[in-house]
Amino acid sequence: MFFWKKSDTEKKAKEGSKEAILELIKEGKRSKAISILEDFKNNEELRRILFDLYVQDKEYYKAYTLLEKYGNLGTAPERALVYEESGYIQKAIEEYLKIGDFNSLYKVALLYRHIGDYPKALDFMERAYKLVPYDKKKEVEEAIFDLKKILGIADIQKESLFDKISKTLKKTKDTILLNTVFINRKVDEALFEELEERLVRADINVKLVLNIIEAVRAEAIKKNIQNAEELKPILKKEFLNILKNGGNKDLFFELLNPKDKPFVILFLGVNGSGKTTTIGKLASIYKTQGKKVLLGAADTFRAAAIEQLEVWSERSKVDIVKKHEGADPASVAFEAVKKGIEENYDVVIIDTAGRLHTKEPLINELRKIKKSIQKAYEKAPHVSLLVLDSTIGQNSISQAKVFKEAVDINGLVITKLDGTSKGGSVISIVKDLSLPIYITADGERMEDLDPFDPEIFVDALLS
Ligand SMILES: Nc1nc2c(ncn2[C@@H]2O[C@H](COP(=O)(O)OP(=O)(O)OP(=O)(O)O)[C@@H](O)[C@H]2O)c(=O)[nH]1
Ligand SMILES: [Mg+2]
User: Of 2, 56, 300, 367, which residue is least crowded by CB atoms under 10 Å?
Assistant: First the structure.
């Protein structure tokens, strides 16, 4: 009978016949075959089949135990995959290194990055880059750039930052569409009008736009420019002229490589501007540089605010000074800086609340916080940064003025540039506030903090 025939195969398989086992697999009885093979782990040939089945079925941990007990099974890429998937990163790295091609070196770099060994990650990323296929070039360049940034190495490649900022500014660029405006166009009144309208839509202040257009128009007449493409460098010059007080990328790297210890940074800004998120990212970067970091939860207004900072401190494995909701924020700031000195911290970062509807109390509270910080350490805060949410564009200027009234602000952090079409507001903000930009933020990952480079910003905007 048919039934007998089938069971015959099974019987032979159970006796360890390789052919019968392969037959079972062919018939689709994988789990049966696997359970039989598991009784023949000592047989080298059958063990190899079992390993393959485990890998195909993504049973990596089982494949791993087999590897551990019997050693050399499968190919290096298979073994690397098994180790990686079952969480044995160092062993996975060893296997990938045996392969040595682009993919495996890239993988090694990603794994080192995953376990937080950034110097090794950078080393292997650069080795992988030497073998990079053309379609992966950008991706690897960006990864190298991010790692260098995390490590606080100042000699970043301009192209990488340009690519990143271009991507970040996508929504703003889609609004301005300068390339479309300028392509195959004559210089005439209609062009200036369209340019004006698009710059206003990207949230550059109307008066400022009119001035810029006026200057561009004058230059175009002076040089008798007919082709719209040739207006681009003139526009760039006008933007750069405004942004020349907007800071440069060194500010970011000075922040990452502070001279004094503990280096105290005070973060200010209205609720939701991105203070806590930026503090968290910055703390992670310092931590990966091997610095000892302390956060001060001086936003005691809401319990959730304290908790959010706590989550970041756990994620970045840095310490935190906190008190209960409603505690005196100035006392939290004082204690954080004091602890920073006594326990030899490299960096102390103070988070604050920013409820604008209580303007007078807010100003008084911020002044008190600053005084307490100075009481604990007279040189502190070394830097006071005001965080502005770019999605509200120029409206942040009036907010900023309230904070400027309370505390001497050294510079700005512009957040959420990834989610806004109002990126042009950066130009108005710099012009109006005369403050340099220390950091731009564009996402949720630790790497999504960037230096501000006016030239790159303008090039990206006009590209
Ligand atoms: N897309 C994007 N979202 C961001 C960025 N920075 C912060 N956010 C988000 O913005 C929201 C507010 O960020 P928070 O860091 O809590 O802001 P905060 O200034 O600490 O706010 P309060 O604690 O309420 O004063 C959160 O949902 C963040 O995930 C950024 O650069 N890009
Ligand atoms: Mg917060």
Answer: 2
Give 81's pLDDT tier (boundaries 50, 70, 90): very high
Section 385-411 average pLDDT: 90
Closest approach atom of ligand 1 to CA 448: 31
Q: Which of 277, 282, 352 to mutate to test the pocket of ligand 1 (most atoms within 8 A of CB)?
A: 277
Could you tell me which residues come within 8 angstroms of residue 175 by beta carbon, excluding any fewer than 6 positions away? Answer: 198, 201, 202, 421, 424
- Note the pLDDT of residue 185: 82
Minimum-distance ligand to the CA of 268? 1
Answer yes or no: is the C-beta of 275 below 6 A from any ligand 1 atom.
yes
Closest CA to 451 of 196, 146, 202: 146
- Cα–Cα distance, 450 to 422 (Å, whole number): 18
Q: Is 449 helix (H, G, I), strand (E, B) or coil?
A: strand
Between the alpha carbon of residue 381 and those of residues 78, 135, 334, 336, the distances in Å are 53, 46, 11, 12
Q: CA 39 to CA 106: how far, in whole Å?
A: 38
Centre of ligand 2 from the C-alpha of residue 375, in Å = 24
Of 161, 213, 207, nearest to 440 by C-alpha is 161
The answer for 132, left when phi > 0, alpha when psi is -120 to 50, beta otherwise, is: beta
CA distance linking residue 450 with residue 417, whole number of Å: 11
Q: Could you read off the pLDDT of 162-199 as tens digits, one per residue?
A: 888 888 888 888 887 777 777 888 888 888 998 898 88
Residue the block writes with tokens 């420019």: 225
How many CA within 13 A on the CB side of residue 221? 7
Question: DSSP of 84-130, one letter per residue?
Answer: HHTT-HHHHHHHHHHH-SHHHHHHHHHHHHHTT-HHHHHHHHHHHHH
**Contact present, 408 and 382 (Cβ < 8 Å):** no
Using DSSP's 3-state secondary structure scheme, residue 210 falls into: helix
Distance CA 227, CA 230 (A): 6
The residue among 459, 266, 244, 251 whose CA lies nearest residue 349 is: 266
Q: Tokens 């806590």 identify what position?
A: 276
Q: Give 275-315 pLDDT, tens digit per residue.
A: 999 999 999 888 888 899 999 999 888 888 889 899 989 98
Task: Say what the pTM is.
Answer: 0.73
